[in-house]
Amino acid sequence: MTILVTGSAGFIGFHLSRRLLEAGRAVVGLDILNAYYDPRLKAARLAILEGYAGYRHAAVDLADRERMPQVFAETKPAAVVNLAAQAGVRYSLESPETYVDSNVVGFLNILEGCRAHPPRHLVYASTSSIYGNHANLPFSVHDAATHPITLYSASKAANEAMAHAYAHLFGIPATGFRFFTVYGPWGRPDMALFKFTDAILKGQPIDVYGEGRMQRDFTYVDDIVDGLVAAIERPPAPNPAWDATRPDPATSAAPWRILNLGASRRVELMRYIEVLEEKLGRKAEINFLPMQPGDVSATEADTAETQAVLDYAPSTSIDVGVGRFVDWYREYYGV
To answer: Which candidate in 152, 166, 272, 312 is catalytic?
Structure first.
């Protein structure tokens, strides 16, 4: 069973690919190692994956309309996990074109590949930021999420709608996962934990937005991977109880569903920083700043549906998860 993982040299894609390879699966990884953040970190992840006999790499841009069909024709994957995307809420304010190319055009190429060579299951990354300023916490997939407030989240909303159209028209089973603030070893340098750690160890101040009062559902990367692995061989079936007069936003009469992947707990940003200080053995110098455009005050995942469908049970506390990140960071950077 060959599994195509796009974004395999990215943060979550690397962890998923390694988990699958350790389980004896054949993985075709697709990644161009772009320069959104330090390509050397991506290259280091890729070097680990290439040490597995079951790994094959394709340096293909997701938005390449000529080469993407070739990838599907050559590999004919039994399952596809699309994790490649232009990430970052704030960067979407600076470079909107990048998000359309990668997240919309690129996802269309994935769907067309699945149309030509149907896999058993298409699993793809969405985002918790799709809920926008939705005030009902925890966020439920059964509540409408129709008001994204950044282009990044809008591009992910487009992915969910596009996947539904292809599930309806061509019967491609598709599961979209809304990720909640993922962190852990090999994480992205543009994420808060990475930036805070770097600054604190260098004796530099850290910028804390929203006066530190923001709350996030920080989710350890292994818990995210648990959900993805559980989903791969559990494609959705059409919901026989779906009612077009009262449509459920999370399911469909087509083989399509939306699920949350999160820890199901809110943690205030200042508590997150306190745990990091404890693990580093150093205090942070904090520069408090107001909220940034596109930020929301709080996120929390309702994972009841994910638990019911996938037996999903995230278990990593922030004390354990942040500690593992710090251990990795010190070893990788020798500090």
So the answer is: 152
Q: What backbone torsions phi and psi does residue 159 show, to the nearest 5 degrees?
A: -60, -45
pLDDT of residue 271: 97
The parts of the chain modelled with pLDDT lower than 70 are 88-90
Q: How far apart are CA 204 and CA 332, in angstroms?
A: 20
Q: How far apart are CA 29 and CA 79, in angstroms?
A: 12
Q: Where are the domains of the chain?
A: 2-187+218-265+301-315
CATH of 2-187+218-265+301-315, one of 3.40.50.720, 3.30.160.160, 3.60.21.10, 3.40.50.300: 3.40.50.720
Active site residue 333: no
Long-range own/partner contacts, residues 105-110 (CB < 8 A, 24 or more apart): 105/62, 105/63, 105/65, 106/61, 106/62, 106/63, 107/62, 107/82, 107/158, 107/159, 107/162, 107/163, 108/162, 109/62, 109/63, 109/64, 109/65, 109/68, 109/69, 110/6, 110/62, 110/68, 110/80, 110/82
